[in-house]
Amino acid sequence: MSMDKVIERKKWTPKKIGSLVGALVIVILLLMAIFGVNESSLKVKAERLTISTVAKDRFQEFIPITGTVTPQQTMYMDAVEGGTVEEIFLEAGTMLKKGDKILRLENTNLVLDIIYREAQLFEQSNNLRNSRLLLEQNRLQLNSDLAQAEYELKKKENDFKRKERLWKEQLISEQDYDDARAEYDFLLKKYELTKESLKKELYFGEQQVEQLDKSLKRMRSNLAIVTKNQENLTIKAPISGYLTSLNAEVGQSIAKGERFGQIDQLDGFKVRARVDEHYIARVEMERLGEFDFNGKGYGLIVRKIFPEVKDGTFEIDFDFKDKEPDGIRRGQTLHIKLELGDEEEAIVLPRGGFYQTTGGNWVYVLDESGKKATKRKIKLGTANPSVYQVLEGLKPGEKVITSPYDNFGDMDVLILQD
What's the rounded Cα separation, in Å, for the pair 413 and 39? Predict the structure, then answer.
C-alpha cells in the first residue's frame, strides 16, 4: 500500500518577491517626487567659499608671457676659416668700430695650400705660354706649307694651260697633255688637303689654348678665394657696436664655422618672448602687448613671428610701440600681457578654482536668498588672466561659487550656512 506525500505550498515565491520589490521602488520614486528628495545636497560653510558676480563688461583675451630685452641688431661671429688663436687685440666688453681687429688665427695647412696653388698656377701659366708659342709656330709653318702648295699649284696650272693650247694646235702628243693634266689635278687635291689640314690643326691648337686659359682663370679664382681665407684669419668687426662676448684664448683651436663671439648694436632694443605652442595660430603680426616698467605702462607691437616650435614654445619679436623706457638695459626681463583678440562687450565670470573640477562645463549658482546654490550647465569661451567669457548659461547679476569644488563630490545642491 502506498501513501501520497503532501507537498507544502510556498508562501514567498520568486514571482511574489519580484512584484513586491517593484511596487516598493515605485512607492519610493513617488515619495521622492512628492517631497522633492531627488536632489542630493550638502551643507557647506559660506565663509569658506568665494562667491563672484556675473557681469557685462568690456572683455579682451590676452595671455601673460615673459620677454627679454635684446639689441635691435645682433651680429654673431663665426670662423670663416679654422685655426689656432695667435693674438687677441680686444677683450669682451669693448666698444668697437667696424673694421677694428679683434683677433688673429694661424693656420699652417692654409699657408701650405696657398703655396701649392701658387706653384700650380705658375706651372699652368708656363704651359699656356708654351702652348701659345707652339700654336703660333704651327700657324707660321702651316701657312708656309700652304703658300708652297699654292705656288706649286699655280706653276703647274700655268704649265697645264700652255700644254693644253699646244695639244689643241697638235704641237704636242696627247700623252704629254694627259700627264700635265694629271699632275695639275694631283697638286690641286694636295692643295685642298693642305688647306683643310691647316684649318683643323689651327682649330685644335686654339681649343687647347682656350682650355688652358680657362683652367688658368679658375686656378687664379681659387687662389684668390684661398688668399681671402688667409686674410679672414685676422678677424675684424663686421659692424660697430659692443663686443658682448669673445670666447677665445691664445693657443685655443677654433674650428671652421665655430661661433666665438657676438657684437650688439646698442642704438636700439627689441623684446624677444617665448609663447606656448597652443597659441601659435592666434598670435598675429601687429598685435599689441603691454608691460610695466618703473611704475609706468608701455606698449609693444609684434613685428616678427618665428614658426619653429621648440620644447613646446615658439618665439616672437616685439618692437616698442612708442619710445623705449628710460633706463632699460639689455637682458632685462619684462612681464607682458599679449592680446589675442579685439576688445568687445561680453558677459564675464571671474576666474577661480572651480574650473579645475568642472572644465568650465557647469557651476553652482546661488538663488536670490543666497542660501542655496544649484548646479547649472554653462558654456565658456575665451579667457584672460582675470575673467572667462560666458557664452551660455549665466546672466549678468547672478552669483556663482568660483572657489574649488574638490570637496563637493557630485552634489546637485549646496546649502550655505553661516
Answer: 7
Picking from 412, 366, 363, 408, the residue whose alpha carbon sits closest to that of residue 390 is: 363
Q: From CA 383, how far away is CA 385, in angstroms rounded?
A: 7
Mean of pLDDT over the chain? 84
- Which residue, 351, 75, 97, is CA-closest to 240? 97
Measured distance CA(16)–CA(209) in Å, rounded: 120
What does the pLDDT look like over 186-209, one tens digit per residue?
A: 888 888 888 887 788 777 777 887
Sign of the alpha-carbon torsion through 203, 205, 211, 217? negative
Say yes or no to pLDDT of 12 above 70: no
pTM over 0.70: no
H-run or E-run covering 302: strand 296-310
Cell of 337: 600681457
CA 142, distance to chain mean position in Å, is: 65
Amino acid present at 94: T
**What DSSP line would sit under 236-279, residue for residue?**
E-SSSEEEEEE---TT-EE-TT-EEEEEEEEEEEEEEEEEEGGG
pLDDT at 33: 47
Across 69-73, 83-87, 142-146, least confident range: 142-146
Other CB atoms within a 10 A radius of the CB of residue 114 amount to 16
Q: How far apart are CA 267 and CA 74, in angstroms?
A: 11
| Residue whose C-alpha is closest to residue 340's, from 383, 390, 388, 307 | 383
